[in-house]
Amino acid sequence: MNRLPRPHRHDVLIASVGLAGGLVLWALGLFSGGSGLLGRGWTLLPLAVTAALELMRRTRPQTALLCGTAAIVGDQFTSGSLATVLMFTDLVYAAVLYGTPAAARRIPVTTGLVTVATTLGYLAWFRTPQALLLGILTGLVSFAPATTGALVRNHRDTAEAATLRAEQTALLAELDRAQAVVAERARMARELHDLVAGHLSAIAIHSTAALSLDEPATTRRALTVIRENSVDGLAEMRRLIGLLRDSGADDEPAAAPTLAGLDALVAQARTNGASSGLGFTLRDDRPAGAALPAPVELAAYRIVQESLTNALKHASPGTVTASLAHTGRALTVEVSSPYGGGRRPGPRAPGSGAGLVGMRERAVLLGGSFASGPEPAADGREIWRVRAELPLREGESRA
Known about the structure:
Elements: H1 9-28, H2 44-54, H3 61-75, H4 82-98, H5 101-126, H6 131-141, H7 143-212, H8 216-244, H9 262-273, E1 278-284, H10 294-314, E2 318-326, E3 330-339, H11 354-365, E4 369-376, E5 382-391
Parallel strand pairs: 1-2
Antiparallel strand pairs: 2-3, 3-5, 4-5
Helix pairs in contact: 1-2, 1-4, 2-3, 2-4, 3-4, 4-5, 4-7, 5-6, 5-7, 7-8, 7-10, 7-11, 9-10, 10-11
């Protein structure tokens, strides 16, 4: 069996004050001027019923209004109590404010029609202008509290909707912030890997050679390469740190690497890979004066840089070729290196696989494509080919 919900403490207070006020008026002999057909004692019955219904104004508002309507009609056959009338107006107000949306729309219309019909009925019955006062009184008891409840409910619903929109906006802003942080961390990870991996790989290879070979000339060459890569790596790290810091108003933004620096990049790789039997060449088939968007140029530079680093780590003896081609709609970057064919001389540096992931991410972020893997070469050997196609305009991708 379902128990009735406990009334709100404010509803208990309203019911108590209304009942006590009605008893005081009854004791003083103050009545609202009903027909008095049932005598003064019967005035307490509608009063008590209406006071009891006030306990349900918030939990069962429509039931309270229906029963309250019967009580107010019954009150007209007694001497009448002002307290009963006032509590009935509160039941009308509560039915609109706490009732269902359908009831909130229906009750003001119904009470308005009742007010009009009652006014016309009084005019037809009494045939005097004073009958309008009875119609106005009916409107004050029914239509006025109904419209007041509708206005308050609309204001409450508007405030709740605004609060919900604000919460949703804050949630979306937090999601955007979290996504931006994740994207920035991924970008920083790619930049850090591309900046450091090549230099540290060369340092690892040549330091291992210096430790394993007891030849002063070899050791000196290895230490020279180690120093060059250490200095270059430190400069790159300082540039990255400068980008991550908040720059002042007078600071110049650090320039991003461009494809004009590929010659120096290949020359450095050639120096680092000489002891391992690796040669490096660059073939640039781009038309003269062809301009590239800065994000495309940076991505192409980093892809070539990482591919050369991977070749230093894993390629077999032979020539590593980096090539660029400009088709008008996209920039194609290819790097091929000897693959398989036995172990090359000299030490190798370990790899983590993060470089391939970073290159793919760079291409995908620009709407391009990326592929890497072994392929057969013309001489029957295998090569490892990295190919990236970077659209020059957003959305132009060729798979």
